[in-house]
Q: What sequence folds into this?
């Protein structure tokens, strides 16, 4: 199995990023980005939203730079930036996490730590270790070498040979690794050596820090290889000195339990949480509790720990953790990308109640455990059946969907708690969280937060974004739009429906081009243009007709003209897309027309010389041949006419709403019918000609003939279905939404 630092043949660095090689890694990646003209994206500024061409170019360069950074990170390092959308932010996160401060800053930090009364003894031990390290490390080097290679017997002999100087050897730091022997053994996963060293060292010795300001426990939380061994080693350290769980890593400022969760060491983090006093996570003792909540919500791990922490300190509910939860896509069904099959499974699963305290990250009703220690035949059969059932559930996706729904129900319970915890407060975090949820389209966050605390709908307002209803239109979040639209009429007035200026703001927001994140998941420029028109028509229908001709505040243009100007490039792309599809399909349809017309007069077996009647006219398969040939000829001719109509259309703005999508649907369907009927004609003619002989040739030919039909259906039917649902389906706006908030 490949190691986390293994690089592929197309890698841009010889070694993936790990906690020890950031200096060389960043230099190589920076050189690569500069050579590809991508460094300005990492250190430059985002172009103005109005410059559409520049914005698209920036998006492309940002994606290339972010991809280069992502593939150059190891698995653990990538977890720090996996949810980041810009290369600039990803580079800043990695730089902040790994770039070492100047040596003078480290020494200043260590001198400051030495003045702390809680670690005076550790500071004195560190000073003494540093002095001994400078003068006598050559004496300790064999001891360090044996520890590094996991040879405790010889390491112990070296300690005995040092005599009274053995204590100084335990406190000394290796000049190369800048670590004590205990830290070296811990990072190598040598549990036995760690146990022996902890017994020999004093509690104060365990607080000696490395060059990044990490105690052995803190370093273990960052860089352990096997969590099971790390938990065992952590137990030895904490039993010897329970103050270790309080001491943060100087470089990151995080205590061990938070450090473990940041580096995705969840089982170690669960143990460290059990031994960390609750007071260490309270707000008055630093941001550690808030950081731990953010990690739990951001990765959706250890939700039971998060629930326990919130019960101990409810004020943490309205901190940065609320904003993290609002931004986490996988925390809500509206933020996940499920297939139709997975959505059906999701809706079929019913969970009566969720007890957050009793649910861990591995709880799963489908997680069937195998019996251990039973070797009789019955148990072997049952064990095999369970493995098959477990694999089947995993293959069907039921396991994953169940865990997802369970976590979503847990999050809903958190939202109810947070809505109550907000109370009469309306701080900046609450406002940012609501707008972040709207931007991501998390309708569950808005529904449950406002359902518990209805005043959030009326009081949350941003000077640049406006009310939450206006921002839902600006971000093109139709589910949140429909949710608020379901309010009673009197309630809507408070949300910005009433008033000339407010109504104009909504209308002209709908005239702007949608965010790229909302358009990218729609297939084809024509469907994107249709979605834009649907939004414009929807908002326009709410606005009184006398306001349609009012100009905006900048160019004094009516809404219709402003929409056309803002969507000019998208309309051109949609027109090119439509014409390209129509041109290609016209060629195929015309070819089918030519073939099927010729086939109609060159029937298998030929015609009777006297009467001109086909020889096989009395056979049933011959009737199949004639009918399928006629269907194919008529369908392909219809398809040619339809696609010619698309090519000669005027391509006005409103044509993209229904006229052009309807034509493209009819054209694609008739072309598919023509190709399918052509293959039926071919198969029936082949059977007639062979007179029932060589059946294996006939069977193989029919199977091969089904390939073009299947290929066309596989590639074009998704577009056909999506176009039909977008044009004649229930629509993106839910008109059946019932009022969910009583005023």
A:
């Amino acid at each position: 199995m490949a190691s986390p630092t293994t690089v592929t043949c197309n890698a841009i660095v010889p070694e993936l990023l790990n906690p020890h090689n950031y200096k060389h890694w960043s230099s190589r990646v920076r050189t690569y980005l500069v050579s590809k003209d991508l460094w300005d994206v990492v250190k430059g500024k985002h172009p103005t939203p109005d410059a559409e061409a520049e914005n698209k170019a920036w998006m492309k360069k940002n994606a290339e730079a972010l991809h280069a950074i992502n593939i150059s990170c190891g698995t653990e390092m990538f977890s720090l930036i996996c949810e980041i959308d810009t290369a600039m932010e990803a580079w800043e996160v990695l730089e902040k996490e790994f770039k070492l401060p100047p040596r003078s800053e480290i020494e200043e930090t260590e001198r400051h730590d030495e003045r702390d009364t809680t670690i005076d003894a550790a500071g004195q031990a560190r000073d003494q270790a540093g002095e001994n390290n400078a003068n006598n490390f050559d004496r300790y080097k064999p001891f360090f070498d044996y520890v590094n290679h996991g040879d405790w017997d010889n390491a112990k002999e070296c300690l005995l040979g040092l005599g009274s100087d053995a204590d100084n050897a335990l406190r000394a730091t290796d000049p190369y690794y800048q670590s004590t022997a205990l830290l070296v053994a811990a990072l190598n996963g040598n549990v036995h050596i760690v146990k022996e060293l902890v017994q020999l060292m004093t509690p104060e010795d365990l607080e000696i820090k490395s060059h990044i300001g990490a105690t052995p426990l803190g370093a273990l939380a960052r860089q352990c290889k096997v969590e099971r061994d790390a938990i065992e080693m952590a137990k030895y350290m904490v039993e010897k000195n329970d103050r270790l769980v309080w001491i943060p890593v100087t470089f990151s400022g995080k205590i061990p339990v938070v450090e473990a969760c940041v580096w995705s060491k969840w089982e170690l983090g669960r143990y460290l949480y059990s031994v960390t006093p609750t007071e260490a996570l309270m707000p008055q003792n630093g941001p550690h509790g808030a950081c731990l909540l953010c990690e739990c919500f951001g990765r959706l791990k250890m939700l039971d720990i998060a629930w326990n922490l919130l019960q101990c300190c409810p004020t943490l509910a309205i901190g940065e953790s609320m904003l993290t939860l609002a931004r986490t896509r996988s925390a809500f069904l509206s933020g996940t990308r499920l297939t139709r099959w997975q959505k059906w499974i999701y809706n079929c699963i019913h969970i009566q109640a969720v007890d957050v305290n009793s649910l861990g990250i591995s709880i799963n009703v489908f997680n069937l455990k195998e019996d251990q220690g039973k070797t009789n035949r019955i148990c072997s059969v049952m064990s095999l059946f369970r493995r098959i059932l477990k694999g089947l559930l995993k293959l069907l996706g039921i396991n994953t969907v169940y865990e997802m729904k369970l976590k979503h129900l847990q999050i809903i319970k958190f939202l109810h708690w947070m809505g109550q915890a907000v109370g009469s407060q309306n701080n900046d975090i609450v406002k940012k969280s609501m707008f972040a949820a709207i931007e991501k389209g998390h309708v569950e966050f808005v529904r449950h937060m406002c359902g518990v605390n209805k005043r959030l709908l009326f009081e949350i307002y941003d000077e640049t974004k406006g009310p939450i209803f206006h921002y839902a239109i600006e971000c093109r979040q139709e589910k949140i739009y429909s949710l608020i639209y379901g309010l009673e009429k009197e309630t809507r007035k408070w949300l910005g429906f009433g008033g000339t200026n407010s109504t104009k703001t909504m209308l002209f927001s709908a005239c702007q081009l949608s965010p790229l994140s909302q358009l990218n998941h729609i297939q084809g420029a024509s469907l994107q243009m249709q979605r834009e028109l649907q939004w414009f028509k929807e908002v326009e229908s709410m606005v009184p007709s006398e306001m349609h001709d009012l100009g905006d505040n900048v160019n004094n243009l009516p809404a219709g003209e402003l929409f056309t100007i803002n969507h000019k490039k998208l309309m051109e792309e949609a027109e090119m897309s439509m014409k390209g599809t129509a041109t290609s399909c016209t060629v195929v349809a015309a070819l089918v027309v030519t073939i099927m017309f010729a086939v109609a007069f060159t029937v298998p077996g030929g015609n009777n010389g006297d009467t001109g009647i086909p020889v096989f006219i009395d056979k049933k398969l011959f009737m199949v041949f004639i009918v399928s040939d006629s269907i194919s000829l008529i369908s392909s001719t219809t398809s040619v006419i339809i696609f010619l109509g698309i090519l000669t259309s005027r391509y006005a703005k409103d044509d993209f709403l229904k006229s052009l999508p309807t034509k493209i649907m009819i054209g694609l369907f008739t072309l598919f019918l023509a190709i399918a009927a052509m293959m039926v004609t071919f198969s029936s003619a082949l059977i007639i000609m062979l007179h029932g002989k060589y059946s294996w040739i006939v069977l193989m030919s029919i199977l091969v003939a089904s390939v073009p039909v299947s290929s066309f259906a596989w590639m074009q039917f998704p577009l056909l279905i999506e176009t039909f649902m977008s044009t004649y389906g229930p629509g993106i706006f839910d008109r059946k939404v019932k009022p969910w908030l009583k005023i």
Notes: The chain has 35 helices and two strands.
